[in-house]
Amino acid sequence: MFAVTTTAPKTTIEQQVVRIISKRKAIKAVRLRRTASLSRDLRFDTVDLVDIILELERNFHILVPDEVPFYTVGDFVRYVSAHAA
Questions:
Q1: 21 three-state secondary structure
Q2: What domains lie within the chain, and their CATH numbers?
Q3: What residues are paired with 72 via a beta bridge?
Q4: Is pLDDT at 5 greater than 90 in this prediction?
Q5: 25, 47, 73, 79: which is deepest, by most CB within 10 A?
Q6: SS3 label, residue 38
Q7: Is the pTM of this model over 0.70?
Q8: DSSP string for 3-37
Q9: Residues 28-70 pLDDT 10s
């Protein structure tokens, strides 16, 4: 008999988060490093960040409070990994 797990592996979550971020500005996912600055390196503005957050909330069924700071791609990956069911 096999055990059934309900949580997705971290790599799958990371891949999904990177795909959502890359789709926002048509950036190839392979170019997104976890340390990439959202504003400086990727030129995302506040509207881009809000759209990414809304998409992450929909896809992962989580709620992201307004006061959570996101500065890098890794910040999104860490938050979603910690809060996704």
A1: helix
A2: 10-83 (1.10.1200.10)
A3: 37
A4: no
A5: 73
A6: coil
A7: yes
A8: ----SPPHHHHHHHHHHHHHHHTT--GGG--TT-B
A9: 988 899 999 999 999 999 999 999 999 999 999 999 999 999 9
